Amino acid sequence: MIAPTSSQLAEIDAITGAFFEGKVDQLKHRYCPICNGGKLLFKVSKHVSDLEATPGRRYKANVYIYCDGVCDAMISYTNGYCPGWAEEIDDWERFSAELYE
After folding, report:
1. Which letter does DSSP use for residue 93 in this model?
2. pTM (2 d.p.)
3. How confident is the model at residue 92 (pLDDT cuts 50, 70, 90)?
4. Residue 33 CA from chain centroid, whole number
5. CA 20 to 30 Å from 6, out of 51, 61, 88, 90?
6. Helix, strand, coil % (nearest 5) of the chain?
């Protein structure tokens, strides 16, 4: 795989930032910045950290953003906390599909 260009990296950062900030409307109808055609697939693997904590600190999480298209690349990976707005989502494939409805 060829290294992403600076504009592709900026687009990846924008997508990742929108996800963590809960700006779901900015994720709708966005496509992979690497191949310019694949739909984005979000996956979150979360584990209880402290249920008494404030939202956004209750679950440790691995957040993956994949291209579900031509390049099939993992375009982003973050190890940290599950954003508070996303704590109740269990079906990430459905969440991802709804971004393109």
Report:
1. H
2. 0.88
3. very high
4. 13
5. 61
6. 30, 30, 45
